[in-house]
TrEMBL record:
InterPro entries (UniProt xref): NTF2-like_dom_sf, SnoaL-like
Pfam families for the chain: SnoaL_2 (PF12680)
Name of the featured protein: Polyketide cyclase
Signal peptide boundaries: 1-21
Domain SnoaL-like: 34-131
Keywords on record: Signal
Native source organism of the sequence: Sphingomonas ursincola
Domain of life, per lineage: Bacteria
Amino acid sequence: MRNKALILVMAAALTSACTTAPPASPTEANRAIVEDFARLFYTERDVRQAFEKHVAPDYIQHNPGISDGREAAIRALTPMFSRPEARFEVKRILVDGDLAAIHLFGRGDPATPGAAVADIYRLKDGKIVEHWDILQPMPTTSANPHPMF
C-alpha cells in the first residue's frame, strides 16, 4: 500500500511538472508560414507549390502588372522563376502580426543588373491574402559607399 501511495505521489508530481507549450503568437505562426513560402518561392523557385500551399485563392495583388488571384500570380511569375539564369537571394524577412516583408535581390533577366526588392504580404487565417512590392534597380554608380543590402 505504501508503494502505491509513493507511486501516486510521484506520478502527480511529474504530471504537474509537465506543462504544455503556450500557443504560438500570430507573429510566430505567420513567420513560419512566410519562411516556408520564401524557401519554396525564392530559393527553390517552385512557384506553384509555394502559392498553392501558402496563398489564398482570392489573393489581392497590388502590382499593376499582375491580376488578382492565386492562379493569375502563378501564371505571371512562373516564366521568370523558371529561367535557369534568374537569381533571387532573400536578405531578410520581417514579420509583425499579420504583415510580413521579404527584402531580396532579384534578377529575372540576366541582361539587367537586377533590383533590390521588398515584397510585403498580409496574412489571414494562415494564408497570404495580399501583396505589394517595391523594386529599386541596382545602380551602376552610387553617391554613397553604402551597399544596397
